[in-house]
Design a protein that fits this description.
By secondary structure, the chain is an alpha+beta fold. The protein folds into 2 domains: 2-121, Ribosomal Protein S5, domain 2, CATH 3.30.230; 128-200, Alpha-Beta Plaits. The protein has 5 helices and 10 strands. A hairpin with a 3-residue loop joins strand 8 (154-160) and strand 9 (164-171). The protein is elongated. It starts with a strand and ends with a strand.
Length: 202
């Protein structure tokens, strides 16, 4: 399953007088990520490190930003992957407190900072579906409406004109010919497209 998050969330932890500020946010492009990183840097001018990771579509990257190699960027990236996140970025800002933590403890601290931030996030499940728009005569409306309900197809919109036009979502596996056969070609498919349904996780 793929997930994103609803909005920016933040956290703060302190280890050996170093402060770690976590920022986790939805992100749909590299430009959007760079703008957010620049903004966070301006808000934290005295911070020493801005370690980050992101997954934007098929583009994945982690950056240690001066911390020991493999102690921040890769663990943060692996945390995103482990939680099935996509189109999400995490930035951990570190204010150095004067004590070197060592690579192992540093790695655990960055992962902990991510986890504290992620606990505050509202998860959104991304479900690949098909979106159909169809037209049908008025005398078929109640039967068709019950058909959609019985199959748990999510109705997005219904409009009433010369004919009734309904847009609805189906699983990707749905075979549209089934629809045409079932209603003896009285239902006309106006459009068909891929659709990513966003379902909030309680």
């Amino acid at each position: 399953m793929n997930y994103t998050i609803l909005e920016l969330v933040k956290s703060e932890i302190e280890v050996e007088k170093s402060r770690f500020y976590g920022y986790l946010f939805p992100c749909n492009s590299l430009n959007e990520f760079n703008e957010k990183l620049d903004k966070i840097k301006k808000e934290n001018i005295k911070a020493r490190h801005f370690c980050y990771a992101y997954i934007i579509g098929n583009d994945k990257r982690g950056n240690d930003d001066g911390e020991p190699k493999g102690s921040a960027g890769l663990p943060l990236l692996n945390s995103l992957i482990k939680n099935g996140l996509n189109n999400v970025a995490v930035i951990i800002v570190r204010y150095f407190g004067g004590t070197l933590l060592g690579s192992g403890r540093l790695l655990r601290t960055y992962v902990h900072s991510f986890e504290e931030t992620f606990l505050k996030a509202k998860k959104i499940e991304l479900i690949d579906m098909k979106k159909y728009e169809v037209s049908l005569p008025y005398d078929l409306y109640n039967v068709f409406k019950n058909y959609l309900k019985n199959n748990n197809f999510n109705v997005l919109n219904t409009s009433f004109n010369d004919t009734i036009i309904i847009s609805f979502l189906t699983p990707v596996s749905f075979i549209k010919e089934t629809l045409l056969d079932l209603f003896l070609l009285k239902v006309k498919i106006l459009s068909e497209e891929n659709y990513c349904y966003r379902k909030e996780i309680e």
